[in-house]
Design goal:
By secondary structure, the chain is α/β, with parallel strands linked by helices. It has 9 helices and 11 strands. The strands form 2 sheets. Strands 7-6-5-10-8-11-9 form a 7-stranded parallel sheet. A 4-stranded mixed sheet has the order 1-4-2-3, with helices on both faces. The chain starts with a helix and ends with a helix.
Length: 250
């Protein structure tokens, strides 16, 4: 069991082969149970004070064993595994969606998923060479949002299919965008954010009917991907609230 958990934490291919991923922390376990995740195994050095699903296997271990199994620095007292959920079927774009194109840092991807959940983003889409959603570092950075936020991996062909079906793509670019994010209606749109190093790929940029820029100081070249995504999602949520208020007086 410990060997299996260790491999889940270290090997993306192994996670995909077995359809499971590794998480750490009592708070994250509570979020998983509350969110209805299929928690398969719990390995803990401390008492779990809330009920686990009946099918979950529970094992107690010394802290040294926890440390040897966890791939993370400063491992917590609890490790647990969950089944990877079925892929969400996205055929209709209603609301605001976020597309991450080649964002490779697990901490950034996890933070963006967490922020998306906070601002009511309908789904986060991953394409290109994005960090693995089920990397333990990504999972930790979501702070439990992984069990609440809809996330889907999509190949370029699937994105192109959404475009052909009428989806509106807006590309976030560091500078030279057609408009400021403050002037764009993000509702019923897919906002595409690229990696810090390369930005949006040519393929994804080709889907974007318009581009938008976050106004920043001219001496600053760009923002961290997670920071840029947070600003854009806040603006999208704020714009939706402003339109709702305006409609109520209309």
């Amino acid at each position: 069991m410990c060997v299996h958990m260790k491999k889940l934490g270290a090997d993306r291919g192994y996670r995909g082969e077995h359809g499971e991923f590794l998480c750490d922390g009592l708070k994250l376990l509570e979020e998983a149970v509350r969110g209805g995740a299929e928690v398969t195994t719990v390995l803990t050095a401390s008492h779990v004070e809330f009920p686990l699903p009946l099918e979950t296997r529970l094992f107690y271990a010394e802290r040294g064993i926890i440390d040897s199994v966890s791939p993370l620095t400063n491992a917590q007292d609890v490790l647990f595994t969950c089944k990877i959920p079925a892929q969400h079927d996205l055929t209709e774009i209603k609301g605001t969606f976020l597309l991450l194109d080649g964002v490779q840092d697990p901490g950034n991807v996890g933070a963006i998923v967490r922020t998306a959940n906070a601002f009511g983003i309908k789904a986060v889409l991953l394409t290109g060479a994005c960090a693995d959603l089920y990397n333990p570092k990504t999972i930790r950075a979501t702070m439990g949002a992984i069990f609440r936020q809809k996330v889907a991996k999509m190949a370029f062909g699937e994105l192109a299919g959404l475009k052909e079906s009428g989806a509106r793509f807006i590309g976030a670019v560091p500078g030279g965008g057609q408009r400021s994010i403050q002037d764009i209606n993000f509702n019923d749109a897919i906002i595409a954010i690229g990696s810090e190093g390369g930005g949006l790929s040519k393929e994804v940029l080709s889907l974007c009917g318009e581009t938008a820029t976050i106004p920043i100081a001219p001496e600053c070249e760009s923002l961290n991907a997670a920071a840029a995504a947070a600003i854009i999602m806040w603006e999208a949520a704020s714009g939706a609230r402003r339109r709702a208020v305006a409609d109520s007086y209309g």
